Amino acid sequence: MLVEQIWTGNALRNFNYLIACEETGEALAIDPLDHEKCLRAAKDRGWQITQVLNTHEHGDHTGGNQAVIDATGAKLLAHHGASSKIAGMDVGLQAGDTVTVGKRVVLEALDTPGHTMSHICMLAHTDQPALFSGDTLFNAGAGNCHGGGHPEELYDTFVSQLAKLPKNTQIYPGHDYLENNLRFTLNREPDNEDARSLLGELEGSHDPADCLITDLEQEEKINTFFRLHSPTVIATLKETFGDLSDSPTPKEVFLKLRELRNSW
Question: Cα–Cα distance between 159 and 231 in angstroms, integer?
Fold first, then answer.
């Protein structure tokens, strides 16, 4: 599997992706908002985009669909529940459905509600597994829920699906918020040395065009939304939310963290 992460450089800090079959050169474009960069990257590498996939229905992920389809004749895939929200869908995906790219690349659709209720992540079951996580999971962070989603659903997605993936699963998110997310982690968990060390390495040198690719093992160390049992996270939440019990449930911790991150 060949992966091209495309930094759009826009105000929303979007990433777009091309996933290609090394044998055939067929490619899947994920959330190709910057259609010009996606089409140019495919041309430069000799790839043919045959499918476009949207992780969810927001315009900063679907806005380049038609231009890519017009240029390539690609089919459009998305969550089956988004058919009324994404124009021109050819295939509606449900949990467990697979998407084949060329001869060698197979991706599994995960139904991952939370950011929106019609969100999918795509999981590559390769020797080096990879998750194309859209706006569900960011490097060191989690998606917001005020554009058609719900934080309780996002919590369920994190604990029932994402946390159970292989620890070496690489994370390819829909946006670059890494530095700010690390600062949020440190605000909630000041003694998190993994987050502090990484932020120190990145400050002044972080380049989204050559972005650090984290894996789930690293995320569980630096991403506060995976650190729901941390005594420090719980203690700092109690300072903010005086009605929080001494032993809050992981769900309570997650929901309070998501509430705080909304205004961070």
Answer: 18
pLDDT the model gives residue 127: 86
Q: Where are the alpha helices (DSSP H) in the chain?
A: 35-45, 59-62, 65-72, 151-160, 178-188, 193-202, 216-222, 231-240, 250-261
Whether 144 has a pLDDT exceeding 90, the answer reads yes
Q: Do residues 253 and 233 make contact, with C-beta atoms less than 8 angstroms apart? A: yes
pLDDT at residue 21 greater than cutoff 90:
yes
Task: Judge if pTM exceeds 0.85.
Answer: yes
Model pLDDT, residue 264: 83
Task: Answer yes or no: are the C-beta atoms of 17 and 132 closer than 8 Å.
Answer: yes
Mean pLDDT for 190-211 is 95
pLDDT at 170: 98
Structural contact between residues 131 and 92, judged by C-beta atoms closer than 8 angstroms:
no
Rounded CA separation 83/72 (Å): 21
Closest CA to 107 of 131, 119, 124, 126: 124
Q: How many CB atoms lie within 10 A of CB 222?
A: 25
Check: CB of residue 81 under 8 Å from CB of residue 65: no
Print burial letters for 226-247: b (CB count within 10 Å at least 16), e (below 16).
bbbebeebbebbeeeeeebeee
Both tokens of 146, joined, read 């005020």
